[in-house]
Specification:
Blueprint lengths: L12 H18 L8 H19 L7 H21 L5 H8 L3 H10 L7 E3 L6 E3 L11 H7 L2 H6 L3 H12 L4 H8 L3 H20 L1
Length: 207
C-alpha cells in the first residue's frame, strides 16, 4: 500500500490511509478512458501525492529536487510540443518526448501543487477533455480528513451492483462491455449505473 511507504514520519498510519483514500477518490471521479493510460497509472501518483502534500504541509517531507527539475522540464516540453503540434500535447506525448514514465509526469505535477491542465483529445471527436485540470492545491487538516470523506466507507455504502461495477471498472480495469457480460446485463445498463454512481460521489465531494 502507498501509505506504508510514509510510515514513521510522526503521522498515524490510519490518517495516511485516509489520505490515500482521498487521492483514490479523486482519481475515480476524474478518470476517463480517453486519457489513454490505465487507471492504476493515473491513480497511484494521485494517492501518493495526496499523502506527500499533507506531509509537506506538516514539515515531514519536501518536494524533491528531481521532481522540481522534472516539473520545469514538463513546462518547457509542453510549450515546445504546442508549437510543433499546434495544440495542447497529451500526457503520453510529453512523457515520450522527455523519455520518462507517465507516472512520473503526473507525480511531478501533483507534487508541485499546480493546477496544470493537459488536454486529452478524444479520438474521432472535436472536443477535448482535461486530464489533470482537477489536481488542485487543497489543504487538509487531520479533522478535515475525517469529516470531509472516508472513501472506503462511501464505497461500502453503495448498492451491491454499484460497488461491483466500480470495482470491476476502476480496480480490475474491465471495459463496460466486459462488465456487462460478466454481470449478465447490457452495456447501456453498465454505463447508466457508472454515471449514477460517479454523480453520487461527485455530489458528496462538493458538499
Amino acid at each position: 500500500m502507498c501509505a506504508g511507504r510514509f510510515a514513521g514520519r510522526g503521522v498515524e498510519q490510519e490518517d495516511l490511509i485516509q489520505l490515500g483514500f482521498i487521492g483514490l477518490y479523486k482519481a475515480i471521479i476524474n478518470f476517463d478512458s480517453s486519457y489513454e493510460v490505465k487507471f492504476s497509472t493515473y491513480a497511484v501518483p494521485l494517492v501518493m501525492g495526496e499523502i506527500k502534500r499533507f506531509l509537506r504541509e506538516n514539515g515531514s517531507i519536501k518536494v524533491s529536487r528531481r521532481l522540481k527539475e522534472l516539473y520545469a522540464g514538463i513546462k518547457f516540453t509542453k510549450s515546445k510540443l504546442e508549437l510543433t503540434l499546434g495544440r495542447e500535447p497529451k500526457i503520453t506525448e510529453i512523457a515520450e518526448a522527455m523519455n520518462v514514465g507517465t507516472e512520473d509526469i503526473i507525480l511531478s505535477l501533483n507534487a508541485n501543487e499546480r493546477v496544470f491542465s493537459l488536454e486529452e483529445e478524444l479520438n474521432g471527436e472535436d472536443k477535448n477533455t482535461s486530464l489533470i485540470e482537477t489536481i488542485e492545491d487543497i489543504s487538509y487538516s487531520e479533522e478535515k480528513i475525517v469529516d470531509r470523506i472516508v472513501v472506503n466507507e462511501l464505497i461500502q455504502n453503495l448498492k451491491k451492483n454499484e460497488r461491483q461495477i466500480i470495482i470491476l471498472r476502476f480496480f480490475k480495469e474491465l471495459t463496460q462491455q466486459e462488465i456487462a457480460d460478466m454481470l449478465g446485463i447490457s452495456q447501456v445498463q453498465v454505463c447508466r449505473i457508472l454515471k449514477r454512481v460517479l454523480k453520487k460521489l461527485k455530489d458528496v465531494y462538493k458538499q
